[in-house]
Structure formats: C-alpha cells, structure tokens
Specification:
The chain is an all-alpha fold. It has one domain: Four Helix Bundle (Hemerythrin (Met), subunit A). The chain is built from four helices and no strands. It is globular and about 45 Å long.
Length: about 130
C-alpha cells in the first residue's frame, strides 16, 4: 500500500513542477516498499542518495520559478526546502553509521509527513501566487 497518494491539491499549476511532485511521491512510495520488504542496507543507502538528489533537483526548479516570479514568500519556502534536505542528509549519515538501522521503517513516514505538510502549506501558497 502506498504511503502517499497524489491529490489535486498538491498541484501548483506548473506542469513541470507537478510532474516532479508526482515522481517524488513515487520515490517515497518505492522507498517505503523496499523497507517493508527488508531490502539490504547497501541498496537502501544507495536509494537514499537517489532520493536526496531528486529532491534537491526538484527544489532547485521550484526555487528558480519562485525567483523568476518574484515570489514574496521565497525565503520561507526555501528555508523549508533546506530543512528537509538537511534532515535527509542526517538520516543518510545516521544510516551509514548504523545509528538509523533500528528506525529505518520510519523513514517513509517521515518523508510522507513532510511532503504532505509542505504541499498543503508552502506549495499551496505558491499555487495561489502563480494562479
């Protein structure tokens, strides 16, 4: 079962960004499934790197759009992006050191909670501003 399902309220009205949102949801759901299946730690560590890279690239696109449109809430939105990237980096470091192994099944839930909240707050505001 998927942790996070696409909902129309996640759309910001920019096709490229909405496509990437859908792809990030797929990555989160895939990570959850691999953790449920007990995928090996090296595979999980590699996948964490892929998720971090995909999220960083997506945030760069969103931030470019915000700068180009002179979006007034850009600093707060960017700060939220940076907080998630820092959190994922910390999870990756903990995972590499073995400190996160006991709680790794919580990773999908952590990402799901963050994205759900981010979509409903920051991205919803951006959607209204761009609309």
């Amino acid at each position: 079962m998927a942790l996070l399902e696409w909902r129309n309220e996640f759309s910001i009205g920019v096709a490229e960004v909405d496509y990437e949102h859908r792809e990030l949801i797929k990555l989160i759901n895939h990570l959850h499934q691999t953790l449920v299946e007990g995928t090996s730690d090296p595979q999980t560590a590699e996948f964490l790197g892929e998720i971090h890279s995909a999220i960083a690239a997506h945030f760069a696109l969103e931030e470019k759009i915000m700068r180009e449109s002179r979006y007034s809430a850009y600093p707060e939105h960017k700060e939220d992006h940076e907080a998630l990237l820092d959190e994922i980096r910390e999870i990756m470091d903990d995972f590499d050191s073995g400190a996160y192994a006991a709680g790794k099944s919580d990773l999908g839930a952590t990402l799901t909670a963050w994205f759900g909240q981010h979509f409903q707050t920051h991205d919803a505001k951006l959607h209204r501003a761009l609309g």
